[in-house]
Amino acid sequence: MDSTEFYDRTGEYVAVLIPQVWRELGPALGKTLAGLDATAGALVDVGAGTGVGTATLAAVFPGAEIVAVEPHPGLRTALLARIVDDEDLARRVTVLAADVAHAQLPERVAGLIAMNVLGHLSAGERREFWALLAEKLTPDGRAVVTIAPPTRPEPVPEAPVARARIGRLRYTGSASAEPAGPDAVTWRMSYAVSDGDRRVAELSALDHWTVFTPGQMADELAPLGLRTAPVDGPHGLHVITRR
Ligand SMILES: C[S@@+](CC[C@H](N)C(=O)[O-])C[C@H]1O[C@@H](n2cnc3c(N)ncnc32)[C@H](O)[C@@H]1O
């Protein structure tokens, strides 16, 4: 499912607002990956966006080789800017300009994260992704993915998602969703930039998002010899390992 147009319009807001999401998500991800042997293979960040998760991986696993896969040129520019500005990241993070189906992933993957990404894949693309994971994951490797509600095509009332202040300007984002067929919703993301009481900019954009339940994911993974378990906490983290 192509999200290019959505991120063409919203990339700037994603860059500004997603770090707030990561303030709690980052430590939760770090805990979920604790004890992983990152010398057994590379660590992969699928749909790395602006690279908050990539930098989190790098901090949790000093010295590990990391591959960040990011198809969108705007978000990838932010990702590369983050990496090139840090000697340690520049030495060990490789950025692949492709979607996950077309990226030249490393042979052996010790750890993989796909955070806030899987809804961009159609059900068929998701199954191809599981097959790739089953092929590459090392015996004691771990993948961590997020599944956020809704997990079925249901309406979601509008609610704020994040806010940030940069200089004089305040950025806010809110989201709502409507069902879009048997296994998808359309998210409406609304962003605003304000200078005090004055609205400087506002934007709404629609994003097609495939939904699935944790049970569905378990059923898709089982024939590939992979199993999944939810991680405690409010972040929708699920860990995938070999049986
Ligand atoms: C909501 S953003 C999340 C970014 C990042 N994972 C984070 O949490 O900060 C979703 C990302 O998935 C990427 N994406 C969309 N389709 C993809 C695909 N088929 N393969 C890899 N990445 C994809 C988008 O370009 C975007 O960077």
Automatic annotation (TrEMBL):
Gene Ontology MF: a single term: methyltransferase activity
CDD domains xref list: AdoMet_MTases
Methyltransferase type domain mapped to chain residues: 44-142
Family matches, as Pfam families: Methyltransf_12
Source taxon at top rank: Bacteria
Biological process per Gene Ontology, one example term: methylation
Methyltransferase recorded as keyword: yes
UniProt keyword annotations, A-Z: Methyltransferase, Transferase
Descriptive protein name: SAM-dependent methyltransferase
Organism for this UniProt entry: Amycolatopsis endophytica
Organism placement in taxonomy: Bacteria, Bacillati, Actinomycetota, Actinomycetes, Pseudonocardiales
